[in-house]
Every structure is written in structure tokens, then in C-alpha cells.
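Q: I'm building a small set of examples for a reading group on sequence design. Run inverse folding on the following structure and report the sequence directly after it, with nothing in between.
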């Protein structure tokens, strides 16, 4: 999905702000669907399985990067399948070949703990590592409000294992460790939702519930009087991930999402 004109106005404003502060800014290509509130598997297959569609998307991305002065393109295609692997490689190769010199090409990949899982999700890791400049490993959403029971958003041991698995095929010097700046609620009835660290703390304080720090996971949890369980990752969690990134020797960290996370140290 490439944003419409209204969304591009907002993105251009953010681009200008980033450059005024001496920061780099990358344009995000995603198959997120506002209509369904989820990533669209059919949409990404239609894009990647058609040479015509790949060329059209690359032409537009290259035009935007050149005309607006973006520092990079981040490709965040999720909910893919094994049959999308070859198309993804072809798309990224074409995009890398057509992008202006100096424009960084990054790929977001969900954290997994087995090579088979990466392949079944559409990623040929070793090949991709030879095409893109950077891989942001999304080591969060280990647990979530709509697909699992309560648990850490991205526990430290799970993150370490995901990085170790990726490192069997990809140089860690090109990898950013994903860090959650949010949490999830798990009510006893109905669906949970995401919460900012500030909101999670406020809910616990209003309820008089204990906020428990889990040293092994590097995250917080609480249980409200009505049985709702909340897990969240905050500024203390972020500092633990900085230490993990240094220990692993990766390129850096990638925080999602800046607008909801605690202030950075």
C-alpha cells in the first residue's frame, strides 16, 4: 500500500521536520489495510506475483524518493506466505537497482525462532541480505491481545533467540533489534487492545493494582480487579534492549512506536 495524497501531505511535513533536526527519514511501504485493521495477504501476493505490478510500484516509489528527498525506503510487507518468496526477491532487486545512490533500502521482518518459519513466511534470508542495506527485526508481538494469552510483548530471551536464528543467515552488523514501546490488555471477556506505557501505569494506579517488573523478560505486568491482565514495555525495558543490542553486536535498535513509547534516555 502506497499512501494517498492526503497522507503524503502529512508524511512530507514529517520529512521536513526530520531534516530540520538533522535526522534521516525513510518512507514506509506496507500492506496494512485500514479497512480490516490487519495486514492484507492477498494484496501483497497480487503485488509480488506480477512483474507489471512490481514495476509500477517501483516506479512510483523511486519517483517519490527522488522528488521529495527521502533518505530511504522501508519495506514492511507482512502476513506473507512461502509462495511470495521469489516475488519479494524480484521486487527488492528491482527497487534496489532503480533507487538513487545514497537512498537506503530497509526491510522489516517479524521475529521468529526457526529458519523454517522465516521461509514459510516468505523470506529468503541469505538472498535478502545481499539486496537490502538494513533489516529491522521486529522482535515484539511475541504475545498479543488477539492471538495469544497474556505474556511479554517481546521477552529478552525470546529476542536473543530470534536474533541468533536470523544471524545464521544474515550479518548482524546490518540488523536492528526491534523494541516495543507499548503493551497489550487481556480482559476476561471481549477483545483486548494495545496501550501506551503511560496508559498501562495509569490503569494500574487507578485500580490500586501492583505493577510487577519481570527481570527475565525485561517487562512489566499487572492484573486489575476485574481480571484484566496487562503487559507492557517501557523506558526501563528499552534500556535493557540497548544493552542486549550491544551484547549481540547488532547495528542498532528500532523502536515501535515513537509516539506511544516512554521518552528515550
Amino acid at each position: 500500500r502506497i499512501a494517498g495524497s492526503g497522507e503524503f501531505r502529512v508524511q512530507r511535513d514529517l520529512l521536513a521536520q526530520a531534516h530540520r533536526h538533522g535526522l534521516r527519514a525513510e518512507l514506509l511501504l506496507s500492506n496494512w489495510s485500514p479497512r480490516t485493521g490487519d495486514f492484507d495477504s492477498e494484496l501483497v501476493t497480487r503485488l509480488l506475483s506480477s512483474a507489471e505490478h512490481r514495476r509500477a510500484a517501483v516506479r512510483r516509489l523511486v519517483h517519490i524518493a527522488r522528488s521529495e528527498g527521502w533518505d530511504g525506503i522501508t519495506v514492511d510487507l507482512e502476513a506473507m506466505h512461502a509462495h511470495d518468496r521469489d516475488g519479494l526477491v524480484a521486487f527488492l532487486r528491482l527497487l534496489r537497482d532503480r533507487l538513487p545512490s545514497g537512498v537506503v533500502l530497509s526491510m522489516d521482518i517479524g521475529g521468529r525462532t526457526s529458519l523454517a518459519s522465516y521461509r514459510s513466511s516468505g523470506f529468503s534470508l541469505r538472498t535478502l541480505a545481499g539486496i537490502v542495506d538494513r533489516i529491522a527485526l521486529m522482535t515484539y508481538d511475541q504475545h498479543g491481545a488477539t492471538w495469544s494469552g497474556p505474556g511479554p510483548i517481546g521477552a529478552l530471551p525470546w529476542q536473543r533467540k530470534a536474533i541468533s536464528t536470523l544471524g545464521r543467515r544474515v550479518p548482524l552488523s546490518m540488523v536492528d533489534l526491534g523494541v516495543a514501546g507499548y503493551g497489550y490488555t487481556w480482559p476476561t471477556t471481549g477483545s483486548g487492545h494495545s496501550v501506551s506505557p503511560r496508559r498501562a501505569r495509569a490503569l494500574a494506579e487507578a485500580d490500586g493494582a501492583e505493577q510487577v517488573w519481570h527481570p527475565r523478560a525485561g517487562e512489566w505486568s499487572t492484573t486489575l480487579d476485574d481480571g484484566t491482565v496487562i503487559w507492557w514495555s517501557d523506558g526501563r525495558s528499552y534500556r535493557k534492549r540497548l544493552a542486549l543490542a550491544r551484547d549481540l553486536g547488532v547495528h542498532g535498535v528500532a523502536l515501535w512506536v515513537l509516539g506511544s513509547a516512554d521518552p528515550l534516555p
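The chain has a mean pLDDT of 95.
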